[in-house]
Specification:
single chain, 270 residues, alpha/beta, Chloramphenicol Acetyltransferase, 2 domains, six-stranded mixed sheet, two-stranded antiparallel sheet, globular
Length: 270
């Protein structure tokens, strides 16, 4: 085989957990909502707050609103226990994926914002910024940074075992909802930030959450406002429910609450 026209490079092993997660056997029956949300007034309110020297981000505001809406509709963030019971959590732990740099490359790092419903937007933003800015020179800085030798041994062992065993171990660890909350949080969240002329939704194919929300593109579209057609900024949002946990009517009620909260700009900065 002529190797002059291609090259084979190592896939960073830090990506193995992401690859393993895609191999989960997911027995959930998903309901998917594709939402278009007018965020014109929402963004304007953010700019007003920024001019008042309140440092907040669009993502932080959305995460806070999601957390408050889940806290007010706790069943959407519940977890199934043995097919017969639901574990309903008092607080909302939102898991997001941030990019961190390692060895001149970037990798997805899961950050869990604990009790996001009890935090303000600036507090959420600081938590995200601190995680992004935290230096990473080697993998043990992420796993067991206080015990680098033990962390290195664990990582070598983890990456050395077959993928099927890793996936089985990970699935076993999150089978119990209480343990799963500690490891992966209660609500999944992702933002792709599609820009320019791209317009579309994001579909996380497999995920272990009862509720997963993904932000797609923000584009300008004609929208009817007070019986007039206006050009507005519209956010495409995907909301994925586990149908084993929640039915259509409460899911629709949650989505209505979420959309109304965003469009009204219910931003809590204190």
């Amino acid at each position: 085989m002529d190797k002059k026209h291609f090259q084979i490079v190592a896939n960073p092993r830090i990506r193995m957990p992401t690859i393993d997660a895609g191999k989960f056997r997911n027995n959930s029956t998903h309901m998917i909502g594709l939402l278009e949300i007018d965020i014109t007034d929402f963004r304007e309110k953010i700019w007003v707050l920024r001019r008042q020297n309140t440092s907040i981000s669009f993502t932080g505001c959305i995460i806070k609103i999601i957390a408050d809406c889940v806290a007010a509709n706790k069943q959407v963030g519940a977890a199934l226990l043995n097919d017969r019971k639901l574990v309903i959590f008092d607080d909302v732990d939102i898991s997001i994926s941030i990019e961190r740099q390692l060895n001149n490359g970037y990798f997805p790092y899961p950050l869990i914002i604990r009790c996001a419903n009890t935090k303000t937007v600036p507090e959420i933003d600081r938590e995200i910024k601190n995680a992004v800015d935290k230096p990473v020179e080697k993998e043990t800085d992420i796993f067991m940074p206080e015990k680098p030798m033990l962390g290195k041994l664990f990582l070598n062992l983890f990456y050395g075992i077959p993928s099927k065993i890793r996936v089985f171990a990970m699935e076993s660890m999150i089978k119990n909802p209480v343990r799963a909350r500690q490891l992966i949080g209660t609500v999944g969240f992702a933002t792709v930030n599609l820009g320019g002329r791209l317009s579309g939704w994001v579909f996380p194919d497999k995920n272990p959450y009862s509720l997963y929300i993904a932000l797609g593109s923000v584009t300008k579209k004609p929208v009817v406002v007070k019986n007039e057609v206006r050009i507005r900024e519209v956010l495409n949002m995907t909301v994925i429910f586990d149908h084993n946990v929640i039915d259509g009517t409460p899911a629709r009620s949650f989505m209505n609450t979420l959309v109304n909260s965003i469009e009204k700009g219910e931003i809590k900065v204190s």
